Amino acid sequence: MEEGNGGGGGSGAAAGVRVGAESSEPKRASVRAMPHEECVEGIRSALKNPTVRFLRERMEKAGCQVWPRLIQAATCSDAGGYASGHGIKVCCNHMAFQDEITQVLIHELIHAYEDCVAKNLDWKNCAHHACSEIRANHLSGDCHYKRELLRGFMKIRGHEQDCVKRRALMSLKNNPYCSETAAKDAIEAVWDICYNDTRPFDRAP
Ligand SMILES: [Zn+2]
């Protein structure tokens, strides 16, 4: 089966493997999504965010394709997603605040950067995908303690790493090539290398 982010040619009608920033955490049940137009405007504002600009600059320097074609406002099942050849989707039906849009965009841009810069990145390979999720969740600040407090998780020592693992595992669950056991093993196997690989940032935010 052809896949959106397998890197090969062609693209079937199949949804394919998606590398997504999950939104399956129990936080949004009662929060209304913003109107689509507002979300599109929010994406435009997010492009001015310093971290987003920094990632764009690094991608341009590396000869990667950047917007406008890279990013689309969409209706989809997670918070966002990235797939090779398809670019970044921000799932506007899940966005309630500007901050969420910016956050999703930074997370997915890290995947896009990696996909462009890393040679032979294979999303079907659990270890490759695990590495990218570890980096995206760590470097985007998805696991910053303020966000964890909003999700109802207490800040305790070492919590940031637990959060990165938890969220990486959730994203890997969407990858049909990684069973839960394989996903857990992959996360552990690549953890030290990928958690400490902060490119293109000098260090984690
Ligand atoms: Zn991700």
UniProtKB/TrEMBL annotation:
<dbReference type="GO" id="GO:0005739">
    <property type="term" value="C:mitochondrion"/>
</dbReference>
<keyword id="KW-0482">Metalloprotease</keyword>
<feature type="compositionally biased region" description="Gly residues">
    <location>
        <begin position="1"/>
        <end position="13"/>
    </location>
</feature>
<dbReference type="InterPro" id="IPR019165">
    <property type="entry name" value="Peptidase_M76_ATP23"/>
</dbReference>
<keyword id="KW-0645">Protease</keyword>
<dbReference type="Pfam" id="PF09768">
    <property type="entry name" value="Peptidase_M76"/>
</dbReference>
<keyword id="KW-0378">Hydrolase</keyword>
<protein>
    <recommendedName>
        <fullName>Mitochondrial inner membrane protease ATP23</fullName>
        <ecNumber>3.4.24.-</ecNumber>
    </recommendedName>
</protein>
<dbReference type="GO" id="GO:0034982">
    <property type="term" value="P:mitochondrial protein processing"/>
</dbReference>
<dbReference type="GO" id="GO:0033615">
    <property type="term" value="P:mitochondrial proton-transporting ATP synthase complex assembly"/>
</dbReference>
<feature type="compositionally biased region" description="Basic and acidic residues">
    <location>
        <begin position="24"/>
        <end position="33"/>
    </location>
</feature>
<dbReference type="GO" id="GO:0046872">
    <property type="term" value="F:metal ion binding"/>
</dbReference>
<comment type="similarity">
    <text>Belongs to the peptidase M76 family.</text>
</comment>
<feature type="region of interest" description="Disordered">
    <location>
        <begin position="1"/>
        <end position="33"/>
    </location>
</feature>
<dbReference type="GO" id="GO:0004222">
    <property type="term" value="F:metalloendopeptidase activity"/>
</dbReference>
<keyword id="KW-0479">Metal-binding</keyword>
<feature type="compositionally biased region" description="Low complexity">
    <location>
        <begin position="14"/>
        <end position="23"/>
    </location>
</feature>
